[in-house]
Design a protein that fits this description.
Helix content: 25-40%
Distance between the termini: 20 Å
Strand order of the largest sheet: 1-8-7-2-6-3
Structural class: alpha/beta
Radius of gyration: 16 Å
CATH architecture: 3-Layer(aba) Sandwich
Strand content: 15-25%
CATH topology: Rossmann fold
Length: about 200
């Protein structure tokens, strides 16, 4: 099982990876269940001496998952809710090759991709969110972090997030399938407790 670190220890852990890379981008994945505190931890890395750039997996929400005909099984939803191929093609691969990355941020109000973001191939890049450590992109990262938070804390946070219980239920089923079958916690370099 991965070693548990505090935020301060996580910053030091990532800094050591940055120093061994000697340039380019240091890629960090932060995965864990909804409401675990992934965004809070990513924000802390952004505010730290690392000055990390943060990309939210929610920015890559897929049009395919919005309102599929006939619904999706949890396994299908796990594959469809996040456009990990776009993340790989537009961000991870170009930056790893030393090229500029770019991507459209998903607009949750308009329900379609919106404003474009450009990324330079340097510094620490944090990809945070459920599905960040999918098997297809897991090897892209220099550091993998799993956020482990008690279910009662997470569920309390989630109850305040959405007014669409049908979508929340569908998302939760896909996320549960992901955590039970893909098991991102098993592939984490380190674990951090959510706040």
């Amino acid at each position: 099982m991965a070693e548990k670190l505090t935020i301060e220890q996580l910053v030091e852990f990532i800094q050591k990876r940055v120093e061994t890379r000697q340039g380019g981008v240091t890629f960090v994945a932060i995965d864990g269940p909804s409401g675990a505190g992934k965004t809070t931890i990513a924000d802390a890395l952004q505010q730290s001496d690392l000055a990390a750039t943060v990309i939210h997996i929610d920015d890559f929400y897929s049009d395919e998952g919005v309102n599929p005909l006939g619904g999706l099984t949890p396994e299908e939803a796990c594959d469809e809710y996040v456009d990990w191929q776009r993340l790989q093609e537009l961000v991870l691969e170009p930056l790893k090759d030393g090229d500029t990355g770019y991507y459209p941020v998903y607009d949750w109000v308009a329900r379609k991709p919106g404003e474009w973001v450009t990324l330079q191939p340097r510094g620490v890049l944090v990809i945070e969110g459920v599905y960040a450590m999918r098997p297809e992109i897991r090897d892209s990262y220099d550091v993998t972090v799993y956020v482990d938070t008690p279910p009662e804390t997470r569920l309390g946070r989630l109850s305040e997030r959405s007014d669409n219980p049908v979508w929340v239920k569908r998302w939760a089923q896909a996320e549960e399938w992901y955590n039970e079958n893909i098991r991102p916690a098993d592939y984490a370099d380190v674990m951090v407790s959510g706040f």
